[in-house]
Amino acid sequence: MMKNILVLLLVFTGMSNTIFAQNDAKATAILTAMSKKYKTYGTVKADFTITANNPKAKLNQTDKGLLYVKANANKYKLVMEDRDLFSDGKNQWIHLKQDQEVQLSTVDNDPDALNPAQIFTIYERGFKARYAGESKVGSKVYQLIDLTPTDPKKSYNKVRLTIDKNALRLTKAVIYEKNGTTYTYNVKSFVPNVKLPESTFTFDVKKYPGVEVVDLR
User: Fold this and answer.
1) pLDDT digits (tens, 9 = 90+) for 152-187
2) 8 and 183 in contact (C-beta within 8 Å)?
3) For 123-217, where are the E strands, in sequence order?
4) Is residue 88 a contact partner of residue 200, using CB atoms and an 8 Å limit?
């Protein structure tokens, strides 16, 4: 599931104009508006659930996650049940809780690298976007956008975004894998401009007695 966490951990900032040419006008307008609003935030705190489902494989598993992001700084902290990820923009720590191990590596600055700091930017590059209509739940109206990867070698063939029309905020994303598995991400809460000390984005080994640090740099 970790690979797909990182796929979704691209879902909230801007789009490039080069990609706009491949999108329909309605999808472009919605994503541009959401991007513009997100870029006004200095930090973000979001908690979400991830459900993996594949009836044929008898898979139905739900995990919880909590994400802290410092916008435009490549800094994040991702808290999951079995592991935590930290990045201060230069180094990345992956804390494997059951193994009492921390893997320390250098941040991959390749623009195509998957990065939790970009959780809200899956549509920024490498996708074609299509407006797929609206749905209404109670008093809320949601806009649906389907993303298809331009690279046919990807393990998934579609990502569907559900966006709160009034709040201009992503509330759900579903990744459709070619093997029949779906990964559904529900954003339970989204709090912009929270106060986050710099220590949020680094792993402090002193707070985890007995943990082994494996330096992969």
Assistant:
1) 888 888 889 999 999 998 899 888 999 999 989 899
2) yes
3) 127-137, 140-149, 156-164, 169-177, 182-192, 212-215
4) no
